[in-house]
Q: What sequence folds into this?
């Protein structure tokens, strides 16, 4: 059992909280004062704690960033002390919205949110994953007709191994996990978000992932 803190109480954060708690982990969902928290009760009656972001980060072994990517860098940099010596799993994409509210451009062209976080938080092991799919696929990859891909980017091999284990608890088969290499490879997967709005406009929010076909 791992102590997991999730920053962000929207659809992504609550979806991950339910699934990870249901898999037996001790989960704290980090909320802000004005957050509207949806039902987070996982199957089996396992409880999920709630706390402010600083407490959530300080008391967890693994912290998941599920906050909006365009403001995540400033928000998490303020938690530098709380995130020291922790694994930070970044599942967000830093984008500028277009007129229709869907991602229109990248906040960090030529870089990535994950790289910016790693530079700002040198005492933290940042791992990028689960950012190339709609949120419901993160916790139900087997529901797709074609096996999806979860990409991993990060400088610390032990941290990536830990995160791969958590992905397994979410239903990801080892063959579906693709380790791309160090944190600079995150700029490739973050750029994949630019194809998502075009797919959504044509097909709606039908579950899909941007994956490798072999």
A:
């Amino acid at each position: 059992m791992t102590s997991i803190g999730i920053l962000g109480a929207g659809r992504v954060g609550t979806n991950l909280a339910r699934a990870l708690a249901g898999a037996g982990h001790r989960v704290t969902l980090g909320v802000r004062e004005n957050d509207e928290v949806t039902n987070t009760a996982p199957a089996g009656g396992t409880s999920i704690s709630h706390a402010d972001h600083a407490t959530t980060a300080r008391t967890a072994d693994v912290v998941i960033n599920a906050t909006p990517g365009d403001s995540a860098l400033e928000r998490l940099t303020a938690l530098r002390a709380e995130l020291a010596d922790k694994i930070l799993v970044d599942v967000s994409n830093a984008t500028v919205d277009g007129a229709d509210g869907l991602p229109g451009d990248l906040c960090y062209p030529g870089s990535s949110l994950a790289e910016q976080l790693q530079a700002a938080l040198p005492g933290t092991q940042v791992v990028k994953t689960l950012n190339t799919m709609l949120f419901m696929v993160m916790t139900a990859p087997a529901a797709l007709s074609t096996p999806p891909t979860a990409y991993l980017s990060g400088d610390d091999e032990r941290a990536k191994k830990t995160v791969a284990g958590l992905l397994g608890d979410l239903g990801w088969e080892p063959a579906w996990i693709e380790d791309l290499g160090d944190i600079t490879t995150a700029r490739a997967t973050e750029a994949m978000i630019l194809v998502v709005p075009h797919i959504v406009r044509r097909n709606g929010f039908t579950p899909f992932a941007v994956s490798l076909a072999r």
The CA atoms of residues 68 and 114 lie 13 Å apart. The mean pLDDT is 93. The first strand starts at residue 3 and ends at 7.
